[in-house]
C-alpha cells in the first residue's frame, strides 16, 4: 500500500481485509516506510480490528526491527481469537513530505510479536507515528 502525500494534512486512506475467522490468536507482521523530508512532517498509521458488527478495536503496535534496507522498519500486532476484518488507517502529515508505504503483511504464530519485541515502545493507544530513524 502506498499513501502518497499529494493531498491535505490529515487526509486518510483505509485498507480493509475481508471478514476472517481466526481460530486461534495470531501475530500480524508488516514492513513500513516513511518518506520524511524533515522531522515533524510525517504521517501516522493505525491498525484496527473490526468485529462482525463493524466495531473497531485499536491494536497495540510493537516495533520489531528498525533500519531494514532502504529505511524500512518492521512491526507486529497481536490479533486475538475471533472473527474480524483487519483495517489499516493511514493519515497524511505535511503535503508532499509524508508518503507512507506498507508491505509484506503476513500472519504468523501468536508468539512472534512477544518473541521479537524491541525495547522501543510506541504510543500505547495502538497508533504509531512513523518517523525517520536518522
Please give a quick description of this structure.
By secondary structure, the chain is mainly beta. Helix content is 4%, strand content 51%.
Q: What does this 3D model show about the protein?
A:
This protein has one helix at 111-116; strands spanning 2-3, 12-16, 20-22, 26-36, 44-50, 56-58, 61-65, 73-79, 82-91, 98-109, 127-129. The protein is globular, with a radius of gyration of 15 Å. The strands form 2 sheets. Strands 2, 3, 5, 6, 9 and 11 form a 6-stranded antiparallel sheet that branches. It has a 5-stranded antiparallel sheet with strand order 1-10-4-8-7. It has a single domain, classed as Sandwich (Jelly Rolls), CATH 2.60.120. The protein is mostly beta strands and 134 residues long.
Name of the CATH first level: Mainly Beta
* SSE pattern: EEEEEEEEEEHE
Low-confidence stretches: 117-134
Secondary-structure-based class equals mainly beta
Report helical residue fraction: under 10%
Please name the CATH architecture: Sandwich
Number of domain modules: 1
Task: Describe the global form.
Answer: globular
Determine the number of helices (DSSP H or I, runs of at least 4 residues).
1
How would a crystallographer describe the biggest sheet? Answer: 6 strands, antiparallel
N- and C-termini, Cα separation: 23 Å
Q: Averaged pLDDT, please? A: 79
- For the secondary structure, the number of strands is 11
